[in-house]
Amino acid sequence: MIDFTNLPLRKKGYDGANGSKLSIVYSDNLYMLKFPLRNLKNPNLSYTNSCLSEYLGCHIFNMLGINAQETLLGIYKYHGKVRNVVACKDFTSSNTSFIDFASVKNQIIDSASNGYGTEIKDILDTFEEQNVVDPNKLRDHLWNMFVVDAFIGNPDRDNGNWGFLYNQEKDEMKIASIFDCGSALFPQIDDDFIEKIISSKAEMNARVYDVPTSAILFNGKRGNYFKIITSLEYEDCNKAIKRIVPKINLDQINLLIDEVELASDLQKVFLKKILKMRKEIILDSALAKLS
Ligand SMILES: Nc1ncnc2c1ncn2[C@@H]1O[C@H](COP(=O)(O)OP(=O)(O)OP(=O)(O)O)[C@@H](O)[C@H]1O
Ligand SMILES: [Mg+2]
Around Cβ 134, how many Cβ atoms within 10 Å? Predict the structure, then answer.
């Protein structure tokens, strides 16, 4: 694991509610160093495992051919304590800045909801009404994210958590790399809790069939990934299933998990098991129905 403690700091700041962030220079590149959030819900785990989730989530997107930010796991020493951190390579440049989807949605005058509204119909309507990115690319991208977020159990893909790189010289907008997978893969769960749930079929099933739900709303309610995907109701979602699911290689993902120093052995067993279940129950069954 890399020690990021004494690297040069830059003045750039990053927003977001899930933990502190610094900008640092590592190997001549700018990185956003993301610290885990204090865990107020679970007294056994003082900080969430969000760094591990960020790292694994982004790597899984990349393995499936969907461009995600480069991430590295490491430590940062602060006030005599060692913190786990994830370094996310900054994907902006001197002439490109990040613009979230909420800001593009805000360009729609008299939209049914504001930029942060995540009702699926409003999102899809925005794709047709906006004039900054090819709507076909947007639809593919949204459903790619939806399918992979379903796989990794991400409850947080709101309109601020994906977006575009805007080139101010060329006045050009391109889809940005995936970032913020920090809430995926059950980051609040500690070893004691895993012990309790891993041998219970009901507890494991609940984490496939019921939770987490999607930040995207379907008829006013957060989406149940299992129900939405296996309903085959959204044609572009079905296309994304056909594109992505055959590329999921659980052996390769298991190797990635095994190589992480930060995770306990029990955490690794849990992550491998829940990903296998989510793939089989949500994604493989949808693909089987489609073929
Ligand atoms: N790799 C990156 N390069 C440049 N900017 C980034 C990168 N990743 C994230 N950002 C910017 O930093 C912000 C915060 O990052 P991120 O979304 O990961 O934090 P968070 O605290 O988990 O957010 P949230 O409040 O959604 O949980 C993003 O909204 C985006 O504007
Ligand atoms: Mg975010």
Answer: 10
Q: pLDDT, tens digit, for every residue of 231-253? A: 999 999 999 999 999 999 999 99
Tokens for 182, please give them.
């920090």
Q: Of the ligands numbered here, which is closest to the C-alpha atom of 155? A: 1
pLDDT (tens digit per residue) in 19-32: 999 999 999 999 99
Distance 152 CA to ligand 1 centre (A): 18
CB-ligand 1 contact for 215 (6 Å cutoff): no
Question: What would the pLDDT profile of 159-190 be if each residue is shown by its tens digit?
Answer: 999 999 999 999 999 999 999 999 999 999 99
User: What whole-number distance in Å separates Cα of residue 133 and Cα of residue 111?
Assistant: 18
State the CATH architecture for 2-92+178-290. Answer: Orthogonal Bundle (1.10)
Rounded Cα–Cα distance for residues 238 and 229 (Å): 8
Residue in 7, 37, 34, 8 with CA at minimum distance from that of residue 21: 34
Q: Is 161 in the pocket of ligand 1 (CB under 6 A)?
A: yes
The structural domains of the chain, with segments of one domain joined by +, span 2-92+178-290
d(CA 184, CA 51): 10
Rg (CA), the chain: 19
> What residues sit around ligand 2, an ion, with C-beta below 5 angstroms?
16, 161, 180
